[in-house]
Design a protein that fits this description.
Blueprint: H1 31-52, E1 58-61, E2 66-69, E3 73-84, E4 89-92, H2 107-119, H3 122-125, E5 128-130, H4 133-146, E6 151-156, E7 160-166, H5 169-173, H6 179-192, H7 197-207, E8 211-214, E9 218-223, E10 226-232, E11 238-242
Amino acid sequence: MSFLKKLFGKEEESPKDNPLQSANQEHGKTEQELLEQYGGIGLDKQRNLYEVIGNNAWNADLSKGEISFGGQLAFPIQVLGTFSHSSKTWLWAWANDKSSIPPNLLQQALYLKNHGEAHEIPLLKHSEFDAEINDLHLIGMIASGMFNTSAYYLADYGQGIMLVTFQSAIIDKNNSNDVARISTVFPELISTFETNHRNAFKNYVTRKGYTIDQQENQIVAENNGKRITAAFDELSRLTKLQA
């Protein structure tokens, strides 16, 4: 089963970080560039989440601006939007007038909207559109990377799914720079989403703290004695990944 299908669970108290931290970086100006920029690190953070969470039920309290799991763990959230199982449509939280979402929980969603309008990115600027589950993961990965959150979460409430991001010191402690993590996450990313493999790999390992040596047909990434080499063909498609 794909790791993308297993992200439901548990958590605990975390610092109240600025929901727009790191948002002043230079971001991709197309959906493809954003995926290449943040897809790897966004999916990597979900590994941290899955290692922490269990099978506990979730509960969201929008008045408190938090999501809790199993009655024990709670985290401050930003609400990105919702997906309807019946209509198969995505609705951005800033356009959801019926849910009365507190304005302070919409900061990341509104930043993404403004970025989408500035660069004509349909995924980010249109209030509602036909969607698939992978679109939620794409939005979650972009937001998680852009705002340096600990993870994103797909909260399924039966009729639909609420997509949120949140901060958690516990999740962050599970971060791994081991090459085995990269060797697992990156192939899943490029098998799930169409992207320029070379650009996505370069951005991913750089954000993991690796220094890179770019050669004509490969990238060698190193971090504290750990090395991983990715080879690509003339179309920048991955041909070999060796740790």
